[in-house]
Amino acid sequence: MEFAQDLLRPLLDGQFRALARAISWMENGHPQARELMARVWPHMGRAAVIGLTGAPGAGKSTLTDQLARALRAEGKRVGILAVDPTSPFSGGAILGDRIRMNHIADDPGIFIRSMATRGALGGLARATQDAIDLLDAAGFDVVLVETVGVGQDEVDVVSCVQTCVVVLIPGMGDEIQALKAGIIEVADLFVINKADRDGVEKVEREIEGMKSLSPTRSWDPPLLRTVAAQGEGIAEVLTKVREHGVWLRAHGGLQRKAWERARLRFSCLLAEEASRRACARAGQAKVESLIAAIAERHLDPYAAVAEVLDSA
Amino acid sequence: MEFAQDLLRPLLDGQFRALARAISWMENGHPQARELMARVWPHMGRAAVIGLTGAPGAGKSTLTDQLARALRAEGKRVGILAVDPTSPFSGGAILGDRIRMNHIADDPGIFIRSMATRGALGGLARATQDAIDLLDAAGFDVVLVETVGVGQDEVDVVSCVQTCVVVLIPGMGDEIQALKAGIIEVADLFVINKADRDGVEKVEREIEGMKSLSPTRSWDPPLLRTVAAQGEGIAEVLTKVREHGVWLRAHGGLQRKAWERARLRFSCLLAEEASRRACARAGQAKVESLIAAIAERHLDPYAAVAEVLDSA
């Protein structure tokens, strides 16, 4: 078995192979995962973490790639995490990587990773948080976290990054409804991508309308237009992201975000670890027999869970 | 306090107020929730459960409403659960209900409920499963579970219903990529809604392409076209849903789905309950101090969780 102390130095040096392995350890619950996180923990806290979310097809990947390029042009080292929860079985993550490869995957200053965990509740959010920390410790200046879906896990992930960018496109009137208040309330910045299409003003009016229904915030999320495929508007997005960072520092926002993120990390990990321990205590055979009893309607799920937890 | 035994009879009689209250009990973790589920449990197992998922803006709500109308015309009682995970803070669920109201909310044979839990990991999937069971026990013939998002929670919810309908629309080439293998693999039926728009054949080709990349299944998910807003194609969807039900019964699929669902229910509930108990044992003050320590970077999350669990 490899040990955490062996991985630590190459990881802190920013070596891609060590980083990839460390993220896999976290995803898969490697026996040394906890030890590694403990050793890495003192070395982090410097990276700017930017989340990008929005409806499928809004061009989040393209926008992410362009932001990464622009940051590279400034000499920054950039990590990209593509959170891909719709691939519980196979394929999705690999597909996502392959599409991206052609654009920026050859740049030695850009580390790209698709995060797609299999099944564990909250495990994706937890593993993504771990990966952000590892990139931070490995000396990346900026971590871009891009979500593919628009579900609860994704809202959880992006709501506690430093700056949350919500990406929309023209001609998606219905979709604004679908994004709804949850996303609107976590947005620090709205980007209307594919802004060379008809209907930009309409989306802008709709966003303004949704904003007016939400509680007033001391940071008023700006609306920007981009055509990411042509690189248009990218510089403005980075400018606003930086303004938001300045605002956060001036208004105690960094502490608040750190606290939200700590709460999320604690909850995800507690749920995972408490479940794991309870199942280990009860034994796999017992757990399977309880699940069978639920499926056959001999036992309700609440009673089954109580049986596992009460026997501890 | 109200007791489970008082709610049981009106619930089994299918009274809407009792049903609404029972679902709220499950959502909010009412002290009598477990007792109620134990009493309700022997009375269920008859309802057909159909999930509808797909990209925002695909017209899932309209399709759901039309399916409900068609089922009503056959004299069926229909429950609709709109799973709305993008509204962790406010507004979303209410908005969804209001849009629907005009159409079918006056029908006494249709019970509609938006499910939107606040924060708890896996809590939405768990509460939705509880609500399905309650509708089943209350004598509803069909439960339609419609998801708003396309995240992990939603995949979890629809992957273990009886028949999973994936709704797409023409002109969303990129979105097919975004839905990816996870959704493709859980689909029992593809519906291309808004099929009066250009690009139907293109979507169909893309779905066939995605299907060809997935493992072969003994049930080959059919592709159907609808224009839900005009009621076109609805009868065909119901026919295929029924064919899928027949197929499931003939191939042991109902037991398999029941087992998957039992596993999901057990996992969700175990994570919630094990976390709750661990926090209760440690005490709220201790938990908050650990979260603060993570936020201030004195302690890594793995160590914090171990501290809560080891002290038990």
Characterization of the model:
2 copies of one chain form a homodimer. With 312 residues, chain A is an alpha/beta fold. The first copy, chain A, has 13 helices and 7 strands. In chain A, strands 3-2-4-1-5-6-7 form a 7-stranded parallel β-sheet, with helices on both faces. In chain A, helix 1 packs across helix 2, helix 1 packs across helix 3 and helix 8 crosses helix 9. The longest helix of chain A has 30 residues. About 4% of the residues of chain A have low confidence. At the A-B interface, helix 3, helix 5, helix 6, helix 7 and helix 8 of A face helix 3, helix 5, helix 6, helix 7 and helix 8 of B.
Record keyword descriptors for this entry:
7 strands; 3 domains; homodimer; 312 residues; alpha/beta; Rossmann fold; 12% strand; seven-stranded parallel beta sheet; 13 helices
Strand content of chain A: 5-15%
Using the coordinates shown, work out and report the CATH topology of the largest domain in chain A.
Rossmann fold
- Sheet with the most strands, sense and barrel status of chain A: 7 strands, parallel
Looking at the chains present, what oligomeric state does this protein adopt? homodimer
Tally of alpha and pi helices of chain A: 13
Strand arrangement across the biggest beta sheet of chain A: 3-2-4-1-5-6-7
Helix/strand layout:
2 copies of one chain form a homodimer.
Chain A (H helix, E strand, L loop, with lengths): L3 H9 L3 H13 L4 H8 L7 E7 L5 H14 L4 E6 L8 H13 L5 E6 L7 H15 L4 E6 L4 H8 L3 E6 L4 H14 L2 E4 L7 H14 L9 E3 L8 H17 L2 H30 L1 H12 L5 H10 L2
Parallel strand pairs in A: 1-4, 1-5, 2-3, 2-4, 5-6, 6-7
